[in-house]
């Protein structure tokens, strides 16, 4: 889903149309969509040159990974429904 939102925003940027706010892109990434956001930045070359955006993106990725490690270390992931 995050990848698709990036694609829509990239298309809007090219057409000079209404854009998805950067905060919404970060929120989608923070909600677990960071792999799609990372792929979109690489494959679509969208938001890949803005240093401040990339910095926040990688903070979001780090926060997600730290959260995953914390959950795993507490055994919470063993109870996760598969």
What report would you give on this structure?
The chain is mainly α. It is built from 3 helices and no strands. The mean pLDDT is 91. It is elongated and about 50 Å long. Helix 1 (2-15) packs across helix 2 (22-43) and helix 2 (22-43) packs across helix 3 (51-73). It has one domain (2-79). 17% of the residues are buried. The two termini are 21 Å apart.
How do you describe this structure in short?
The chain has helices at 2-15, 22-43, 51-73. By secondary structure, it is mainly α.
Tally the structural domains: 1
Radius of gyration: 15 Å
Helix content: over 70%
> Ends: how far apart?
21 Å
Total helical elements: 3
Largest sheet geometry: none
Name the features.
single chain; 82 residues; mainly alpha; elongated
Helix and strand arrangement:
Blueprint: H1 2-15, H2 22-43, H3 51-73
Helix pairs in contact: 1-2, 2-3
């Amino acid at each position: 889903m995050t990848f698709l939102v990036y694609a829509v925003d990239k298309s809007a940027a090219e057409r000079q149309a209404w854009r998805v706010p950067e905060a919404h892109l970060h929120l989608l990434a923070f909600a677990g969509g960071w792999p799609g956001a990372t792929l979109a930045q690489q494959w679509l070359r969208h938001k890949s040159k803005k240093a401040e955006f990339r910095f926040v993106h990688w903070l979001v990725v780090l926060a997600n990974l730290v959260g995953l490690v914390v959950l795993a270390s507490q055994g919470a992931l063993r109870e996760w429904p598969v």
